Amino acid sequence: MNTRDKIILLGDNLIRKRGYNAFSFSDISKELNIKNASIHYYFPTKTALVIAIIQKHLILLEKFKEKVSEKDSVQKIIKFLSVYSITKSEGRISILGSLSNDYFTFTAEVQTELKILTNNTLNWLTDTLKEGRQQGFFHYDMEDRKKALIIITNILGAEQLSRVTDNYDFHKIKEAIINDLIK
Amino acid sequence: MNTRDKIILLGDNLIRKRGYNAFSFSDISKELNIKNASIHYYFPTKTALVIAIIQKHLILLEKFKEKVSEKDSVQKIIKFLSVYSITKSEGRISILGSLSNDYFTFTAEVQTELKILTNNTLNWLTDTLKEGRQQGFFHYDMEDRKKALIIITNILGAEQLSRVTDNYDFHKIKEAIINDLIK
DNA sequence: ACAAATATACCTACTAATAGGTAGGTAAAC
DNA sequence: GTTTACCTACCTATTAGTAGGTATATTTGT
Question: Where does this protein bind DNA (chains A, B) (predicted)?
Answer without folding.
Answer: 24-43
